[in-house]
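quick one before i forget lol
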Amino acid sequence: MTDLQTKETISIAGNQTHITGCVVNLFAFLTVVDEFEAGRADPTTVDSLIANGINRSQPPAVRSFLAAVFGDYESGLVRSQEFTAPLGLEETVFDHVPYYGGENPPPNLTTALDLNFVLTRLWQGDIFSPEWTAYALGVLGNGAAYLDVVLPAQLPESAHFAHKVGWFSDATGWVENDVGI
């Protein structure tokens, strides 16, 4: 957790690697925002896919908006990996959009500190211009109410937040992730 005013960060096992679930789709979203800012794509052509993929946490829509913006899913995935590389995320692995990794895909992984770092940089305007930072935060702040069961459920009703949820289930059990500002 980072206090966005003082920039003080605290964590408990913040470098522990976790399976991401759909939280990893945050990186696909930020990559397309980068394309919007560069003028290489128009958000109005994929806004319903972004709403479904990010605000409703539906992986098929994430795959579709990557394909729409980059010509095909594989190119969008490669571009997402290239976009995340210079962010300095030491423990994050974005191998595939959930459900689309093929048979026995390696897990997408990240840490609380890596996600905290990205969200802090987003909030501070270090990733995009003010216009596109506001756009990204607006999308992340417009999640479907039925997904507000982890972080937002712990906040007062008057709190404003921007977040991305992700679930994952395997032989080890069920995981609910949520990262936010």
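fyi The mean pLDDT is 92.
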